Amino acid sequence: MSTSYYGRDLIVSDQQISTASSNILQVPGDKSISHRVLLAAAITPKPTRLYNLNLGNAVSLLIPALKTLGVQVSLEKNVVIVSPPINDAWNQEEVYVNLGPSSAAARFLIGLLAGLRVKAVVDGDETLRTRPMDWIVEPLQELGANIQYLGEAGCLPVVLKGGCLQDGTVQLKIGSAQARSSVLFAAFASERNVKIFYPIRSRDHTIRLFQYLGMDIQDLPGSVQIQGKCSQPLAEYHIPGDPSAAAFLAAAHIFQRRQTELVLENICLNPTRIGFFEVLKECGIQVEYKNVRQAFGETVGTIIIGKFCENLQPFQIKDSFLFHSLIDEIPLLVALAAIIPGQSAIFGAKELVFKETNRLLSSQNMLLAFGGQAKVVDDSMYITGGLPLQAGTIPSFGDHRIAMSAAALAFSLPGSSKILLGECYETSFPEFPQLMSLMGLNIFHC
């Protein structure tokens, strides 16, 4: 990852900045949904108004890329307005777009551009160039897309040279939601009939969005079939709060052993995203979902975290669906396991190797820096909890999930901790320090 994305270190202190803190909070828009609706809006015939769009680096880097391609994007007050290229004239010359460290932005955009037959070079920073792209390139090529690697095979940069997509069937190698969504966006943009087989169920935001747009989708166990024609163009979309962001606030509440409730409003409660909160329940923490409703194809509601429970139980994550429903919260669960006496374990976590960092190893090293105990064996991790932890200098490796997990844990320890390159939280959760401050917690840059 380029140093321009790393940013400054964070200092986290156990000294609260106020005696009065808020226990009713809202988090920014969901990052995963923000990517998807931004791209859907780009090929909608008329302007689309997007409310509560996540403007972290992972999403905001997509905006200049879309502008380069001729899409019009403007911010008016708290609304992002997206209009397609004038006269639907996508840039006909081969253009270069760089998505920095954002894998989702790159993978989704490649699918969209393949469906539109737009000529472009799609690239990323040095970290994104190491992350696998063959997951999406190969199925798109099977459907007729002309995509070539410009460097190492299977990695960015790639060049799209058009190629007419055909109706067809593809088999994905892995259960990644990004791989499935890339092909779905290609089918959407080309209005093709495509059937996708996949090995593991994972987050389904793209399927829900396309169903909301009136597309003909058959969502079955192990497969999804789409007829890409849209019958209900997107006019506006209100993005619910990000459950992954909410998880950090819930964890800070737990680490502080607070004897009050924490209320997190307007959170996406999609079952493929709330595995972290389900594990909290298994550990003995009271978690309630209230005011549950359907909005824009997603399940939305309020999460209430109860008072701290002294007799927390260790957890084991074995089920593949559960794992994928909390895949972004693994570093946070490693931190949580450190305060629970006994051994917790996470199995079958090979996909973590392909994140911003190898999150099995970076999560382990984060905990070791606090004095905790964790061991990685093949694709699994074992954490021994209940050991004494201490504040210190904690590496984030420039990974936003590691940085925020370390910060949440550090709040509960005597003294101050320095989270190296901790400002990388801006990748997904720019409001992280402000919301922690609203909880009365002391965090600042250095």
Automatic annotation (TrEMBL):
One of its GO terms (molecular function) is 3-phosphoshikimate 1-carboxyvinyltransferase activity. The lineage of its organism: Bacteria, Bacillati, Cyanobacteriota, Cyanophyceae, Nostocales. GO terms for cellular component: cytoplasm. GO terms for biological process: amino acid biosynthetic process; aromatic amino acid family biosynthetic process; chorismate biosynthetic process. Catalyzes the transfer of the enolpyruvyl moiety of phosphoenolpyruvate (PEP) to the 5-hydroxyl of shikimate-3-phosphate (S3P) to produce enolpyruvyl shikimate-3-phosphate and inorganic phosphate. This is 3-phosphoshikimate 1-carboxyvinyltransferase. Keywords: Amino-acid biosynthesis, Aromatic amino acid biosynthesis, Cytoplasm, Transferase. Phosphoenolpyruvate binds at K31, R131, Q178, R359, R401. Belongs to the EPSP synthase family. Its EC number is 2.5.1.19. Monomer.
